[in-house]
Amino acid sequence: MEWCSNLNLTAAAAPVKPNRARLRFMSRPRLIVKGAQCLEKKHGETEAQVKVEDIPWLAGAILAGGIAAPIVLLFSLRNTPAATASLLLNFEGVATTLIAVLVFKEALSRRAWWAVAFITIASILLSTNLNDKWGLSLGAVGILAACAFWGLDNNFTRNISAKDPLTIVIIKGLAAGLFSLVLALLLGRPFPVLTIASGAMIVGSLCYGLSIVLFVRAMRGIGAARTSALFGTSPLAGITLSFLLFQDSPGLMFMIATPLIVGGTILLSIEEHGHLHIHETIIHEHRHRHDDEYHLHEHNPGELPVTEHSHFHKHAWVEHNHSHMPDIHHRHAHSAES
Question: What is the C-alpha to C-alpha distance for residues 113 and 267, in angstroms, rounded to an integer?
Answer without folding.
Answer: 10
